[in-house]
Design a protein that fits this description.
Blueprint: H1 2-25, H2 28-31, E1 33-36, E2 42-47, E3 53-60, H3 74-81, H4 94-115, H5 122-139, H6 147-154, E4 158-164, E5 169-176, H7 180-193, H8 199-215, H9 218-230, H10 244-248, H11 252-262, E6 268-274, H12 278-289, E7 312-318, E8 323-330, H13 336-349, H14 355-363, E9 367-375, E10 382-390, H15 396-412, H16 417-436, H17 438-451, H18 457-466, H19 470-480, E11 486-493
Parallel strand pairs: 2-6, 7-11
Antiparallel strand pairs: 1-2, 3-5, 3-6, 4-5, 8-10, 8-11, 9-10
Helix pairs in contact: 1-16, 4-5, 7-12, 13-16, 13-19, 14-15, 15-19, 16-17
């Protein structure tokens, strides 16, 4: 009886959450106000006056997928460099600093060229290395480290950060609502006047990040090799951070050209959510950003990944526990099958009630960890990935075959009404959770405007998920979970080889 009452209370609470989700999602289309400036900059504003703060997301629709052979890793590197300040911020005297920056670039570029020459004299390389170190030491006296961060912190900011993905780059911060003009002046200055100072020292930082996060990390290395195997043609195959040789050869000139072309209003969407007046926001953003040069629209990626014609496999040997990644090519949003994959994601691998957890972790005790996710981006067709960590003494081969049996079952047996409804409810609640915070809503608005081409994807999402049927799940599983559409990446511990 007690358990029954507890269940009813939980159910009532859950239904309240769902009702709140519906109520909140429906008027979202009316709450979001939009303005597009003449230079192409798009501003999205949601007024929420429950607290005297606002969250700001500046999202530029350029990521590692937009790089080419000569500049891979540049979008991620620019995220680092654009924290270094501008002609006014991050420097004690830009006019005095500028000649040193030019000398550093000239010396660093000459050094890079020599390092690429197998016949270069070692003495000349050593001379330029010493010269570069001397110039960098002189330059440090002009640098004001983290000045933008300090300005924001003194004015009550939280969450000041940035991130780069395959598809986009975002700069984020939350501030008191009376600091809107401060935010606009700082961010417009960064868009128009960013100075790529400390280029070569920061390049070394990124190389170390690359070593730590990929080359010395078994999970990062396995994921990287899985992408490089699953994609033969599309630039989704390359790591966001770039390959080591890419990073070593990035140049200031390439970085400036890429930044001035693409990190510009025509490719940018700004979301302001919080205690902000829409008309004031349009006025302030227009005053600081409205006259900036539009820039060059980011071109669509021309490369199209050919249909996979057979299973691909890759093995990584590392001193670590074995791990299995199995990936299947799939369409991206807003394709109908992508919504079905959101349902499949929860059915198979999200939480303790998911099929793979119940079957492989609880019942058969074959694995210790289960995860499913979409990767590596969403602007272009992508992958559905299943990650499994075998439980000793079970082998990767045992786990792999058990997984295929579960995938085959999904394509042959309809998901129960109860299971399907549980998944729909969880997706609704997760969306509500994302929409509740100012930062979460600002993030989602800029993300879907950039990736889907319209923030209204958010408004339509719940009804599209609600229309997914058990027959849709079976059909999609049967269509995509095939041998020829599969890429298998195995992490093998060194001591386990025969």
């Amino acid at each position: 009886m007690i358990a029954s009452k507890a269940w009813r209370r939980l159910a009532a609470f859950f239904l309240c959450c769902l009702w709140s989700s519906v109520c909140q999602a429906q008027p979202l289309a009316e709450k979001v106000r939009e303005h597009v400036f003449d230079n192409g900059l798009r501003l999205l504003v949601v007024e929420r006056h429950n607290a005297p703060t606002f969250s700001a997301y500046i999202t530029v629709g350029v990521g590692s997928v937009d790089e080419t052979n000569g500049n891979r890793g540049l979008a991620h590197f620019l995220e680092h460099l654009r924290f270094k300040g501008t002609k006014m911020l991050g420097t004690r005297n830009y006019e005095a600093e500028r000649p040193l920056l030019l000398a550093i670039e000239e010396t660093g570029s000459a050094l890079d060229e020599l390092r690429r020459d197998p016949d270069a004299e070692k003495q000349e390389i050593a001379r330029l290395e010493k010269r570069l170190q001397e110039l960098q030491k002189k330059h440090r006296k002009f640098v004001v480290t983290d000045e933008v961060s300090s300005i924001y912190a003194r004015n009550g900011a939280v969450g000041y950060n940035a991130f780069t993905s395959k598809d986009l780059t975002s700069y984020v911060v939350s501030l008191p609502s009376n600091k809107l003009e401060l935010w606009a002046s700082v961010e417009a200055d960064r868009m128009a006047n960013a100075v790529l100072r400390e280029f070569y020292t920061e390049r070394d930082v990124v190389l170390e990040e690359r070593r730590r996060s990929y080359d010395s990390d078994p999970d990062g290395l396995l994921y990287e090799q899985m992408l490089a195997t699953a994609f033969n043609v599309h630039p989704y195959r390359h790591p966001i951070i770039g390959w080591p040789s890419d990073i070593r050869n990035l140049s200031p000139a390439e970085a400036r050209n890429f930044m001035h072309a693409y990190y510009a209003p025509t490719n940018t969407v700004i979301a302001l959510v919080g205690a902000i007046d829409f008309e004031k926001a349009v006025s302030v953003v227009g005053r600081y950003f409205g006259n900036l040069t539009a820039g060059t629209p980011v071109p669509e990626v021309a490369a199209v990944e050919p249909v996979q014609k057979g299973e691909r496999r890759v093995k990584v040997v590392f001193d670590a526990r074995p791990k299995l990644l199995v990936a299947y090519h799939k369409p991206t949003l807003p394709a109908g099958d992508d919504y079905v994959f959101d349902v499949i994601d929860l059915v198979l691998g999200q939480g303790r009630t998911s099929r793979l957890y119940q079957s492989l972790v609880v019942e058969k005790q074959l694995v210790t960890q289960v995860a499913t996710y979409g990767a590596p981006g969403s602007r272009y067709p992508n992958l559905f990935v299943i990650s499994l960590v075998p439980r000793f003494p079970h082998t990767v081969e045992e786990v792999e075959q058990a997984l295929y049996r579960e995938l085959d079952r999904l394509s042959r047996e309809p998901v129960s009404k109860k299971e399907l409804e549980r998944v729909r409810n969880r997706l609704r609640v997760e969306q509500l959770r994302d929409l509740q915070s100012n930062s979460g809503l600002a993030h989602m608005l800029t993300y879907f405007q950039t990736v889907a081409g319209d923030w209204r994807y958010l408004v339509e999402y719940d009804s599209r998920i609600a229309s997914v049927t058990a027959e849709d799940v079976m059909a999609v599983a049967g269509r995509y979970f095939t041998d020829e559409n599969r890429t298998v990446a195995i992490l093998e511990g060194k001591g386990q080889r025969p």
